[in-house]
Design brief:
- It is a single chain.
- This protein has helices spanning about 10-25, 30-50.
- The protein has one domain (about 10-50).
- The mean pLDDT is about 90.
- It is an all-alpha fold.
């Protein structure tokens, strides 16, 4: 899959939590954040379908 380089600002506690999880799961920070975002988007889309919204 094509990757896009981006820059974001996040709270330090969020950064630290993601870094800790990434280390525990032997992933890079970027890979871990990508997994978190993919999971969120899957849940978001499933919720929209559940409540009958397709915006």
């Amino acid at each position: 899959m094509e990757k896009v380089k981006t820059s974001i600002s996040i709270d330090k506690d969020i950064n630290d939590a993601i870094a800790k999880i990434a280390e525990e799961e032997d992933r890079s920070f970027s890979q871990q954040l990508n997994n978190i975002l993919k999971d969120f988007l899957r849940r978001y889309e499933a919720h929209k379908k559940k409540v009958g919204r397709e915006d």
